[in-house]
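so my prof wants the structure for this chain in the tokens format not the other one, which i didnt know existed until like an hour ago. anyway here's the sequence
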Amino acid sequence: MTPYIAEFVGTALLLLLGDGVVANVILKGTKGEGAGWITITWGWGMAVFVAVFVTAAYSGAHINPAVTIGLAVAGKFAWAMVPGYIIAQVLGAMAGAFLVWLQYRSHFDITEDPDTQLAVFATGPAIRDMAGNVISEVIGTFVLVFGVLYLAAPSLAGPNGDPGGLGALDALPVGLLVLVIGLSLGGTTGYAINPARDLGPRIMHALLPMKGKGSSDWGYAWIPVVAPIVGAVLAALAYFVLGSEVPA
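here's what i got, hopefully its the right format
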């Protein structure tokens, strides 16, 4: 796999398994209906583990534009590769969301609540407070990217065009990092902490046919895109200060 194909595949796997566990828990008539928040957070954590383990050797397993930007700001990834990575990640997220719809299409048909249908694809706040929602996503992504910067394998990192990011042996730690973010910080906004994770599936929600489908809530959609990027940049700056690193 080329790095760009790996980012597409990794993000597709992330969304297939991550949105898949949400569908299994909240859609009507599934075997996992009503399994609860702990199941969802564990599912997302293990989805990250699988995606990172499969693609780390090929692309550094960013699978998240915020991680890509954070690594670039920290001097651990070439800026020239950032646009291609982000495009691959968004397209991969769309592909993963499509596969979730294909897997659970019969259950979408019998789930009458449009908000529940949307919740499979995209995040939304428990309490709609734009300032508070932005802060929640900034904090969650700060923790994610700050942790990833210390997990990033030095042999894969650098501005010379080589993939920078997580080695395969770091797959489990980053999965556990996402798990604890979900358990501890995810109850406010559903912890997007990944612009591609929210934007790609939200686009698919708008495009796919579903009975009783409601709004894709585009008025909120900017928050899980912009706030994670802000959190990632702040994490990179904190890494410079606390790690005494100088940007490349």
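also thought this was worth mentioning. Residues 3-240 form a domain with the Glycerol uptake facilitator protein fold (CATH 1.20.1080.10).
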